Amino acid sequence: MSQSPRYLEWLPLWREVWHRDDPYRYEQDVYLDLNTSDILWVDRGEQIIHTVEEQAAILLRIEQEPSRYEWIPPLTHGEHHAIFARFLATLDRPEVGLCNSASIGGFLRDVRHHFSPEDASTISQEWYSFHDTAVQEHATQWFRELRIPVIWDAVA
Question: What are the extents of the domains in the chain?
Fold first, then answer.
């Protein structure tokens, strides 16, 4: 029996789930509640979003019904950089060669230095749009592997 599609809003919550970067932006584990499509954030180490009591209650729920909750893995730093490399390949501007391509932050800083403010803003917007689309495709594939059809309400 096939499942009905789940209608999920990409912005802002699901986008943040998939923008986690292991190991650099990975302060929380995230679980999908397979019954409700809610997500549960679980602090890793330091208490950031939950009190100790709230954290214990969430972990107990997951422990008591492990088949109800699916861990959502963060993208690795390498996966984010693979997306970045694909983006760089789409740019048809010789000046891009002057920009640092070793890091996303360094690249965006150099773009601001080597391009006019308007062009720098356009390139930055193109990057964020490209990244959101790629990450959303990754998220859709993750749901597909779980055999959960998903329809995003808002496109990045």
Answer: 9-26+74-156, 27-72
